[in-house]
Amino acid sequence: MKRLSIPAGLAVLVAALVMVFFLNSYYVYVLATVALVATVGVGLNVLLGLTGQISFGHVGFYAIGAYTVAILTSQAGWSFWPAWLAGALVATAAGLVLALPALRVKGPYLAMITIAFSFIVQHAIIEMDGLTGGQNGIMGIAAPVLGADWSIEQTVAVLALLTLAVSLLAYALLSRGTWGAAMRAVKDSETAAESVGLGPLVIKTVAFMVSAGLAGLAGGLFAPLAGFVTPDTFSFMQSILFVLVVIVGGAGSVIGPVIGAVILGVLPELLATLEAYRLLFFGGLLLVVLLVAPNGLIGLAKDLLAMVRRGDRPVRGAAPATAGAPSFSNRPRRGLSLSGLSMTFGGVRAVSDLSMTVPPAAVTSLIGPNGAGKTTVLNMVSGFYPPTGGHFSLGDRRLSAGRAFRIARHGVARTYQTSQLFDTLSVADNVALAGCRGRLGNLLGARRFLSTAVRQRAEALLAFCGYQGDLDVPASQLPHVDRRLVEIARALATDPDALLLDEPAAGLSREDTDRLAGLLRAIADAGVAVMVVEHDMELVMKVSDQVVVLDTGRLLAAGKPEQVRADPAVRRAYLGEDLDQARPVAERPPRTGPEWLGVNNLVAGYGAEPVLHGISLKVRQGEMVALLGANGAGKSTLMRTLAGLHPAQAGGVHLDGQALDKMPAEAIVRQGLVLVPEGRQVFPELSVQDNIRLGAFLCPGDREARLEEMFERFPRLRERRHQRAGLLSGGEQQMLAVARGLMSKPRVLLLDEPSLGLAPKIIDELFAALDQLRRENMTIVLVDQMAALALSLADRAYVIEGGRVMAEGSARDIAASPELADAYLGAG
Amino acid sequence: MLRISRVLVAAAFTALLAMLPWRAAVAAEPVKIGLITALSGQSALAGQAISRGVQLAIDEINANGGVLGGRELVLVRRDDESNPAKGVVAARELIHKEKVAVLFGGLDTPVALAIVPLANQAKMPFMDPWAAGTPITKNGADPNFVFRVSAMDELVDVAMVEYAQKNFGSEKFGLLMINNPWGESNHKGLVAALDAKGMKPAGSEKFDGDAIDVVPQLTRLRDAGADTIALVGNVGPSAQVVKSLRRMGWDVPIVSHWGPAGGRFTELAGPGAEKVHFVQTYSFFGDQSPVGKKVIAALTDKYDDINGPADITPAVGVANAYDAMHLTALAIDNAGSTDGEAIREGYFEIDTYPGLIKTYKDPFSKEQHDALGPQDYVWAQFIDNRIVPVGLQD
Amino acid sequence: MDTQLVSALISGLGMGSMYGLMALGFYITFAVSGTVNFAQGSSMMLGAVLCYTFAQTLGWPIWLAVPVALALCALYGVLVERLAVRPFVRRGSDAWLMSTVALGIVLDNVVMHTFGKEPRSLPSSLAVSPVEVGGLGLGVYPLQLIIPLVGLALAAALHLVARRTRWGSALLATSQNRDAARLMGIPISRAVAGAFALSTVLAGVAGMLIAPLANVNSDMGTLFGLKAFSVAILGGITSAWGVMIAGLLFGLAESLIIMSLGSGYTHIITFGLVIVALALRPNGLFGRAEVKKV
């Protein structure tokens, strides 16, 4: 494909150039216009396709280019060529000026700024009539001369086609090179881009300038082609047309804007005979084209090709599975030291006066209960939050907080709680780009990104991190574990002195966590100062050289793992007294109610890889069933699938004999299967009582009476009934979520991780309320991390691992079974 | 599912394309008359009036055996969306692809100005039935292929000043111009017309086409001591001026370009509309010549939405275009061919033609490409929903 | 000067509250679905044109013409969502921005060919005889005083509906957490369609209110819609009251600029102010700064 496209493009170019001399002047004019619009489209594609920014202001740059040429040739007596260059430069400069405010904002805000820009340009032209001729514009624009007997249209058409060809080539080079990758990276995740040393602002500004410059270049050619410039020519509608050119063609593809320009340039001409009905049909056809190809015609073509080729995609380029030596230099590295670091959010001290060191060649774990301020520390040290007090340094060098990408370039790399990869880049590209450490080289170059040495290093790093998958697959398609590994490899690619990892084990199976422990050890052994924020105590105890405990933002203890473990203050604050002593699991008579909820061979997943491989469950009426398993076992996916938030690929769900599968979520709620989702998900801006009332959306009958009932059940909520739910504590939010769920008159209540992130005392209170529900014969399916706690309430339990049911039985039997220990608690 | 719906949409797309009225190749050899005007957007009504005037004349000519001894005239219209760039593309298409014999066009002055160089270069007779910008016909080209049957801003502006002086004894003019090319062109013209009389405007203001409140601009003019308002604006905005004056309680004479004639001015402006005196090239109200009666009858007959003179809006568009088309047919016959240069000469050879606006005598010469002059302007005002020559209602 | 100032304030508030109403329409659909009808000006025009057609051309009494016109506006809103928004959102495409523009072009031109190309004026007894205010020698049409009141009353009513009614709070809930709203049994697709209907109705109301003052024709809404969009953005598209206040500020700024500098610079300055305001407050004047989640 790629190799074919250059000769094919050349052939089209030559054909178009020949046509210039054989068609009548009308067609030549249309051809030139299409080429100019396509050139603007290519420029806009740098924004839309590569950096994901939108601009409805490109007519402004186009006008600036055109007017610069018109003014300089008609009034200052310049010849065309220097005036053309000046037009492009002035437009580029305007791009820079607009980028300053524009890039502080996103999405619709950015659209608005660019719209405002195009209006300002148009009206400024009208008002500056001494220079611009005001409303009536400028005529008498000098035209370029190439061939003695060429007409103006022919000359401009040739220039426009050559300009288009050069811009396409430049776009292609930019897109495959280092800068193009950096632009895509910024589009995918600015945060992650900063943490590999890329400055998003600079990259986006460059994109804006390139884009504006191309629009100016095209505008400069438009002036002599039309022979005049007037403000009306550069109306807002023209800007919309430019964006359409990119969208209809397909953003992000090299040839997309050309196809879009051909369609949008030729369609109105074909419709010209419709006279007064032209715009009507144009609007209608546009709608049809967009409906047929919502991601552009190139996108449509790709979809169709993929449909044809599905199944025979060759698997290639798997990383060699050699866990060889780390491919980063074994140079001496510096450690981090934090001194008196503090952070205040709106009056709340998240971190106070924290001093600690992260020595090189060692693993330092930062632990503490939820809300202790651990991630805040990471965010300060990696430069995302400017600390409100104190400072930190790498070795002897004091790092100034503020811009994260500077800190990354100094040698502090990090990973995120939810992996932030550059999703549209391939695995290898993710790592290779990070290897540049923010130094991207020249705009169209690719050496720092594509050279063999860079690629080999990326492969070696991936292999070192234990990644064994395809190197060329887009990161978005990776399974969870691989995302973690690639993210760590990417962080290492910057050759950091210090590596910060935020909950690297979250969502990993025991086995994967063990491998992760090995990897962390190996990284530290290579001399890196490793700092880990982690909840998995087993991992922390196993891998750490030093453990630092935070509680409500203060340093509670620091030392070797065993010292910290023995510290009574730590045990009290963090581990909680009664988590050590297992709760008694009561023997209960088996429930004998009718079978109520049945799940049969349920398969579901994200993308190609299923997460659930045929899960079957049976729940009797009035029964409380616990679903147990490690993070990532598929429990939450199961809950979401049951509730209809996630589509099932196969299998069935029945409630009291009624099939629920394929129903949308709102219909499932109506049937009485109600999910209290993970993470509470209250409506933060609504009051507590309005939240509860919403639970009665489908059955508003005796709503107020039931609201009172909920306040009886959860007295804490009554005190807060008028408060905004977003201001409640985690425990209160959880109670609110349960109350809201109960308002839907559930026949089966699904509870997903109700205890997550709650203090032990609150957990007790919550579980007392659940126990009460159980005694009232509510049918409940409970997913909870705290296996012992869940088992103490449940009648029966299922153990799930890797999307399959590994064991089932009475709560007592399961509590004693080895499968539970293996799947859930790990080997320890 | 997805695939099916895409196929369906694609099929609908093809069907739509098939439905387009692709013009079939014409068997006979008619003479094509091109018309480029706004057929959509704000100026669409004026574009429609021009179209109707031209079409009516063409119908008459064809009924009488066409031109060049039996060749039919055919009108080919294009929408310029009031955008000069679109107008130029359309002009190229009509000249090079459709190969029209004469190009009509130019509703908005900038569009007309953009087409002028193209027409002169392609030796294509270009007839302007509306746009009043002075440099359209005085474009400096030799030979000049541009002709006009319409008012000319420069002359209208002089006429406005003279009319106000004579009828209202005006000494201090407040200029109120719409913020578009037309307004800008007349601003220059009025300043020049006043200058020629040794006067300066008391004040000069712009207002926007979508303005709802013109009180600030009017207040400044009043504070500057203006005793007359010279108004240039399309019908809607002109109506807003009357409404704002009513709010201010300021009873001031208004002389205006022909904007108010572009619609139902009384309906839009409310009480006080009759105070605006505006220039016209023709009025379908009052006593009509035989040609006038014939045209009104034909229009009422042909178009469902025309039931009387009040529905012929803007009247100048219909009248100018009607006469321009008849003059053009004479020029073609004089030329004896559809050759551009010959038709240009043909215009000069017209001696007498009894038209709608007047009886033309030697309307065009090498020096004079405008068929109408200040002596042809009629001053009119709105009485109820009728445009009536001033003084006629008494 | 005082007279001018009062006049500028009155017309600024009037225009501003209309911008605000239309901007509220943007806010509602954006909050519930993350999308807007980019051609909202056409919806406004539709309201005015339908009201004119029913009340004037067909001679219906106004109490019948207005609700029927608004009902048709709501229907058009649903059509926009079905035809130009949903197909794209479902496939993860941003092309709804463009498709709503395309649909707007279609509507404008259909109206031009059916309603006519001539600007018309919706007669209203409230916009014929000016009443004197405060002895300043300046009259004001009663409608000009009523418009800001109606605008603010509608915004307040909307607020109450959102807080007090079942469907109102369902819309709020959907805007705050889509998944959780589905778990309450709220049919999201109907909520989104409802939001588009409501937003189009608001634009239609603005069109009707302004019709007796302005002129009714097929492109009366184009620029108005764009200004309303800038108002929505300026207010911070996530804050209902912010949007309304931004509308009033925008209207006032516009009329004060015309008053002091003339109309030539209005667009340059108002749009320049929009850029400056957004550069200083990237989430709009009243939008809440989103916490940078890392």
From TrEMBL, chain A:
Principal cellular location given in the protein's record: membrane
Compartments where located: Cell inner membrane
Membrane topology: Multi-pass membrane protein
Gene Ontology molecular function: ATP binding
Domain ABC transporter per the UniProt entry, residue ranges: 336-577, 597-827
TM ranges: 26-47, 59-78, 84-102, 109-126, 156-174, 206-228, 240-267, 279-301
Keyword vocabulary terms for this entry: Amino-acid transport, ATP-binding, Cell membrane, Membrane, Nucleotide-binding, Transmembrane, Transmembrane helix, Transport
Family membership: Belongs to the ABC transporter superfamily.
Protein name (database record): ATP-binding cassette domain-containing protein
Organism from which the protein derives: Alloalcanivorax gelatiniphagus
Automatic annotation (TrEMBL), chain B:
Keyword flag Signal: yes
Cleavable signal peptide: 1-24
Identification of the protein by name: Ethanolamine utilization protein EutN
Domain of life according to the entry: Bacteria
Domain Leucine-binding protein, chain residue ranges per copy: 30-359
Family: Belongs to the leucine-binding protein family.
CDD domains: PBP1_ABC_ligand_binding-like
This protein's UniProt keywords: Amino-acid transport, Signal, Transport
TrEMBL record, chain C:
Protein name: Branched-chain amino acid ABC transporter permease
One Pfam family recorded for the sequence: BPD_transp_2
InterPro entries assigned to the protein according to its UniProt record, in alphabetical order: ABC_transp_permease, BCAA_transport_permease
Entry keyword set: Amino-acid transport, Cell membrane, Membrane, Transmembrane, Transmembrane helix, Transport
Transmembrane stretches, start-end: 6-28, 61-83, 95-116, 136-162, 191-214, 226-249, 256-280
Chief place of localization: membrane
CDD domains, alphabetized: TM_PBP1_LivH_like
Cell compartments where the protein resides: Cell inner membrane
Membrane topology reported for the UniProt record: Multi-pass membrane protein
Similarity comment: Belongs to the binding-protein-dependent transport system permease family. LivHM subfamily.
Organism for this UniProt entry: Alloalcanivorax gelatiniphagus
Keyword Nucleus tagged: no
